[in-house]
Automatic annotation (TrEMBL):
Name of this protein: Protocatechuate 3,4-dioxygenase subunit alpha
Organism: Nocardioides gansuensis
UniProt KW keywords: Dioxygenase, Oxidoreductase
Classification via Gene3D superfamilies: Aromatic compound dioxygenase
The Intradiol ring-cleavage dioxygenases domain, residue ranges: 13-105
Length: 190
């Protein structure tokens, strides 16, 4: 048997706006729902310009901390909450989701959104987390956040806005680069 060498992932190029989005993809729950929260922000390149053709996916627990296992993410209206959504960026690099605020998945934990970023020029998708702002002691005790310097830790915590929404900006490079995660299956890929 021959060992296969890892190869780069498929870059999505500027064409994905025509193939991957679907109706209500960013609406995990309807925006008018009483308990809906808006998660939004911008995806920036190394020069600080918004990336007009990025794609983000999120996955997260429901407000009780339970990770949904229901199917049907591609059919939103009238379906059960799946905890998964997809949003493209607009010409300024802005993305948004209408969803539920997640709860912690374990006692003493903090809630977060798992975020995946796709963009032209990336050989593989990038993984990060957007933590829901909570008390500083709980955030400092999170295993991932506890291992980061304070400035990097702050870049992974969303900002609560006056209307209750959450803003989470992603910087692909530069001084404010978002902390990205590496998973074993993806570590050895170019």
């Amino acid at each position: 048997m021959t060992d296969l060498a890892p190869t780069p992932g498929q870059t999505i190029g500027p064409f994905f706006h025509h193939a991957l989005p679907y109706d209500h993809d960013r609406e995990l729950v309807p925006p008018c729902r009483a308990d809906a929260v808006r998660l939004h922000g911008y995806v920036y390149d190394g020069a600080g310009s918004g990336i007009p053709d990025a794609l983000l996916e999120i996955r997260h627990a429901d407000p009780t901390g339970t990770v949904p296992t229901v199917e049907g993410s591609l059919r939103r209206q009238g379906g059960a909450f799946t905890g998964w959504g997809r949003s493209t960026t607009d010409r300024t690099g802005h993305y948004w989701f209408s969803t539920l605020e997640p709860g912690p998945t374990r006692d003493g934990g903090v809630a977060c959104f798992a975020v995946t970023v796709f963009a032209r020029g990336l050989l593989n998708r990038l993984f990060t987390r957007a933590y829901v702002p909570s008390d500083e002691a709980a955030l400092a005790a999170d295993p991932l956040l506890a291992g980061l310097p304070a400035d990097e830790r702050a870049r992974l915590v969303a900002v609560r806005e006056p209307d209750g929404g959450l803003r989470f900006d992603i910087h692909l490079q530069g001084e404010r680069e978002t902390v990205f995660l590496s998973f074993p299956r993806h570590r050895d890929r170019p």
